[in-house]
Amino acid sequence: MKGILLAGGAGTRLHPLTLAMSKQLLPVYDKPMVYYPLSTLMLAGIRDIMIISTPQDIPLFKRLLGDGSQFGVTFEYRTQSSPDGIPQAFLIAADWLDGSPCALALGDNLIFADHLSAILKQATQRTIGATVFAYQVRDPERYGVITFDTEGRALDIIEKPADPASNWAVTGLYFYDHRVLEFSRKLRPSARGELEITDLNRMYLEEGNLQVERLGRGCAWLDAGLPDSLLEASAFVHTIQARQGMLVGSPTEVAYRMGFISRQQLIEQAQNIGKTELGRVLMDLSLRDRS
């Protein structure tokens, strides 16, 4: 399975913060925002990842992330000239996908759960259909909203409903089978002038091949696309790391735990940022494993 990290858009909801740089490069506590969805894709075992962003921001992502070898993965970069909807990412990556199943992560989303790796592994193992994740929110009108029947099966998905029938929102993480490009090419722009990810998900739902995983207690999903939610995401990461001593959204740590890089590579990366708390925690991880 290949992975796409969509980090485009103008970030207008975060102006003036995003007038000079991509919102996905803004800090969420001690790491760039893009590190969090990247870590999620890596936790799913995905090592072939395309990063899609604006023409002006791609050089900055390349400077930050390089070719991916420091994380034991491979990065490909493509530009999105105008933000014409999330499914546009599959059209941009058409030749690269080459019939592969694919996961797509939005660059401003953070998902945290102790058992996240197991949940993601289940999604990657589905050979037919799509898997999306739902989370209860206070403001479902901002998202694609899922309704369920009495047995917990998904009935419908509506994009940004004025009067939401439930408070279960679709998060910015999606897994699709090899037909995702075929389905994406059938989409037509909505009234907003964009290709809608909800319309793509509905195609799978209507044929009975959409799996919806509900993220309940013990899970956290944060969309850091607004000033308040950006602050909340930073506070959440700080609290987890300070209280529990574990890292959130560190591609280096994930790469090591997944076996993508060696202990020596972990040490080298920890030394490169040795004056930071992040570097100290990574070095402690390498020392614990030595003993």
Automatic annotation (TrEMBL):
Cofactor (UniProt): Mg(2+)
Catalytic function, reaction form: dTTP + alpha-D-glucose 1-phosphate + H(+) = dTDP-alpha-D-glucose + diphosphate
Entry's EC annotation: 2.7.7.24
GO MF annotation terms: glucose-1-phosphate thymidylyltransferase activity; metal ion binding
Keyword Transmembrane part of the UniProt annotation: no
Ranges where the Nucleotidyl transferase domain occurs: 2-238
Alphabetized Pfam families for the sequence: NTP_transferase
Top-level enzyme category: transferase
InterPro entries: G1P_thy_trans_s, NTP_transferase_dom, Nucleotide-diphossugar_trans
Coiled coil: none
Keywords: Magnesium, Metal-binding, Nucleotidyltransferase, Transferase
Family in the record: Belongs to the glucose-1-phosphate thymidylyltransferase family.
Function field: Catalyzes the formation of dTDP-glucose, from dTTP and glucose 1-phosphate, as well as its pyrophosphorolysis.
Record-given protein name: Glucose-1-phosphate thymidylyltransferase
Organism, scientific name: Acetobacter syzygii
